[in-house]
């Protein structure tokens, strides 16, 4: 059985250029549900395999950033655990991604954005690779270059990481 789905040549070419992977949090790295404890603190559940994929990306030289409109310590803590940048309370996601891209000296085609809903459309449209989880809203699916088989918070980010890593191996002449 293959270790990954068959990827199109166009998808692999886009993925091979990526040097910055940006992720919306709610609905992409989580299942999109919001949990509150008795004191009103927000709780989030992150998939451990997504985290492993993000660590592997960083080790392969791909910068990783969380870009989310919601404020919350959970996203900041998870990003810190994984060595990713955390941008929380972001009102203009594209401006945030653009700032990171420019700071790293990258072109737009070297940026990937994974999102699941209307606020993610603009950064997805500007990215060299736009990805949506399987359960994304139609507004995000409409602009995605690729859609994962997994739902947000259930391994979708790991699928993207695996794609990016497979493309890097292929680009380097290493069999997948």
Please specify the SSE layout and strand pairing.
Blueprint lengths: L8 H8 L3 E4 L11 E2 L5 E2 L4 H12 L3 E5 L5 H10 L2 E3 L5 H12 L6 E4 L6 H6 L2 E4 L5 H4 L4 E2 L8 H16 L5
Helix pairs in contact: 1-7, 2-7
Strand-residue proportion: 5-15%
Series of secondary-structure elements, N-terminal to C-terminal: HEEEHEHEHEHEHEH
**CATH domain fold name:** Rossmann fold
Low-confidence runs of at least 5 consecutive residues: none
> What is the share of helical residues?
25-40%
Overall mean pLDDT stands at: 93
Report what the structure shows.
The model has no long low-confidence stretch (mean pLDDT 93). It is built from 7 helices and 8 strands. Helix 6 links the parallel strand 7 (129-132) and strand 8 (146-147). Strands 5-4-1-6-7-8 form a 6-stranded parallel beta sheet, with helices on both faces. A two-stranded antiparallel sheet has the order 2-3. Helices cover 39% and strands 15% of the residues. The chain has one domain: HAD superfamily/HAD-like (Rossmann fold). With 176 residues, it is of the alpha/beta class.
């Amino acid at each position: 059985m293959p270790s990954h789905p068959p990827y199109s040549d166009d998808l692999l070419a886009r993925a091979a250029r990526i040097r910055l992977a940006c992720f919306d949090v709610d609905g992409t790295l989580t299942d999109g549900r919001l949990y509150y404890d008795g004191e009103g603190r927000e709780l989030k559940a992150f998939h451990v395999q997504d985290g492993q994929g993000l660590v592997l990306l960083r080790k392969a030289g791909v910068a990783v950033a969380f870009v989310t409109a919601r404020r919350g310590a959970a996203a900041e803590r998870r990003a810190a655990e994984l060595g990713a940048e955390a941008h929380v309370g972001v009102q203009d996601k594209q401006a945030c991604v653009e700032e990171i891209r420019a700071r790293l000296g990258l072109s737009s085609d070297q940026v990937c954005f994974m999102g699941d809903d209307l606020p993610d459309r603009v950064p997805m449209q500007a990215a060299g690779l736009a990805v949506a989880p399987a359960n994304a809203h139609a507004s995000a699916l409409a602009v995605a270059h690729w859609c994962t088989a997994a739902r947000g918070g259930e391994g979708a980010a790991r699928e993207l990481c695996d794609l990016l890593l497979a493309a890097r191996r292929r680009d380097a002449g290493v069999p997948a």
